[in-house]
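Renewal narrative, Specific Aim 1. Our central claim is that a sequence can be written position by position from structural information alone. The example that follows is taken directly from our test logs and has not been curated for this report. It begins with the structure tokens describing the chain, in the order in which they were read.
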């Protein structure tokens, strides 16, 4: 393989895409441990409002947060069969509750653009940029920032 194609491959990221409210978002698929249906949770007293609770996933404790509520995009309707994206975080596992899982999209990092100004406000802080495909705009979620602030809120 020549250097140009090696460099090009380093810029390609596989984005797992999903709906949060009506917004199409994506994150690097390598940050995801698994995706599952929401299972029984135990409420956590005095947790921030977006923390739905904790769940036991094959012996691992997972904190589940409503990503829509966290990003200021509205509460996720639990009756609409949402999905939990389990991400690896230092020291713990976090479940990000989303409305719906979509496709995996190959994206060139060099084609990421800064988030538009209308993504400002609280949710704008959680996006590193946007990626345009031929027919949609994907907000690139900064998972580390979502998790870091989640930890500071407790």
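The sequence written for that structure reads:
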């Amino acid at each position: 393989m020549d250097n140009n194609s090696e460099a090009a491959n380093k810029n390609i990221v596989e984005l797992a895409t999903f709906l949060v409210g009506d917004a199409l978002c994506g994150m690097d698929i390598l940050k995801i441990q698994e995706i599952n249906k929401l299972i029984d949770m135990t409420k956590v007293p005095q947790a921030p409002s977006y923390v739905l609770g904790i769940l036991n996933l094959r012996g691992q404790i997972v904190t589940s947060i409503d990503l829509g509520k966290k990003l200021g995009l509205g509460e996720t309707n639990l009756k609409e069969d949402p999905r939990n994206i389990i991400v690896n975080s230092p020291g713990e596992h976090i479940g990000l509750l989303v409305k719906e899982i979509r496709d995996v999209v190959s994206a060139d990092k060099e084609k990421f653009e800064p988030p538009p100004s209308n993504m400002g406000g609280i949710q704008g802080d959680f996006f590193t940029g946007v990626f345009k495909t031929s027919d949609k705009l994907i907000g690139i979620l900064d998972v580390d920032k979502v998790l870091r602030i989640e930890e500071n809120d407790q």
